[in-house]
Design a protein that fits this description.
The protein is mostly beta strands. It has no helices and 19 strands. The protein has 2 domains: about 100 residues, Immunoglobulin-like (Sandwich); about 150 residues, Endonuclease - Pi-scei, Chain A, domain 1 (Beta Complex). The strands form 6 sheets. Strands 7, 10, 11, 12 and 17 form a 5-stranded antiparallel β-sheet that branches. A 4-stranded antiparallel β-sheet has the order 14-13-15-16, with no helix packed on it. It is elongated. The termini are far apart.
Length: about 290
């Protein structure tokens, strides 16, 4: 049988090491999940501490998850968790995944931005058809954050009826939406709208694509910029020569990392009405409308 944990110098018994879970970014904060060790030593109390890298910012909790506040938005952090039992302290866990905090979207009425210098125009919400008959699938991975009116949620936690932030991009004069370029797209805060989830479909994929840490299926279209041309590009066609749209920055940001990963993953097709273009973390993406 395994040896018991070593004795601490203070006369207590050192607890086992927590098992790290997932780090989920918030606004200047992150939530870190973990699994408690099976051996707690001889506790007079139990306090779990998560410590960030970089900056060594900490948060504590008696149970999972731990919230670490005071982080810098736009900075990538990893976290380790350790357990103090009131007498001794465990070794630190392995590092979590990387998480980058970002400011939550402001309510309607925030300061307009217009990265292309365009003037928005009005239209009837149901007066366009953004998806043609060639639609196949547009899905997002389980842990990718989606900006809802109640804050950021992982795709796996979304439910029918949740309201998302979306960008109203008119298309009544564009027959092939995959060919949209900057002359067709109006980006302005006046076009930020609410859209409601009407159905969520799950399926499995054997390859996912990581773009600046966000995960997508290969056929998910992302708003990109390359050679001063703005258009929607499939995730499996994006490389480091592209820029991707960042809602947090109200601008396009360089791709720091892009990788195709052979991995079996449950992905989520999120169908919304009346708009299917919504924000996931720092990207504006399109998803499917129900086919007629």
């Amino acid at each position: 049988m395994p040896l018991p944990p070593i004795s601490s110098g203070s006369g207590g018994i050192q607890p086992g090491i927590p098992t790290i879970g997932a780090a989920t970014a918030g606004d200047a904060s992150a939530s870190i999940t973990f699994t408690a060790p099976s051996y707690l030593g001889k506790p007079t109390g139990t306090t779990y501490t998560a410590t960030s890298t970089p900056s060594s910012i900490t948060g504590t909790s008696s149970t999972s998850p731990i919230t670490v506040s005071g982080l810098s938005n736009g900075t990538a952090y990893t976290f380790k968790v350790k357990l103090g039992n009131g007498v001794a302290t465990s070794l630190e866990s392995a590092s979590s995944n990387s998480a980058s905090p970002a400011a939550s979207p402001a309510p309607f009425g925030f300061t307009p931005f217009s990265p292309f210098g365009f003037t928005p125009f009005s239209f009837t919400p149901f007066g366009f058809t953004p998806f043609g008959p060639s639609y196949s699938e547009y899905s997002v991975a389980r842990n990718t954050g989606v900006l809802t009116v109640d804050g950021r949620k992982p795709a796996s936690e979304l439910q029918v009826g949740d309201k998302l932030y979306a960008m109203n991009i008119p298309s009544e004069n564009v027959l092939d939406w995959t060919s949209w370029q900057s002359s067709d797209i109006v980006l302005n805060s006046d076009n930020v709208v609410e859209t409601e989830i009407v159905s969520i479909n799950l399926h499995q994929t054997d390859k996912i694509y990581s773009i600046n840490g966000d995960l997508y299926s290969g056929s998910h279209y992302v708003l990109t910029k390359k050679d001063d041309i703005v258009k929607f590009t499939r995730a499996d066609e994006i490389d480091s020569t592209y820029f991707v749209y960042s809602y947090a920055a109200f601008d396009f940001e360089a791709i720091i990392s892009v990788e195709a990963i052979d991995y079996e993953e449950t992905v989520y097709s999120i169908n919304c009405e009346p708009y299917d273009n919504f924000f996931t973390d720092n990207m504006l993406v399109f998803d499917t409308k129900d086919q007629m």
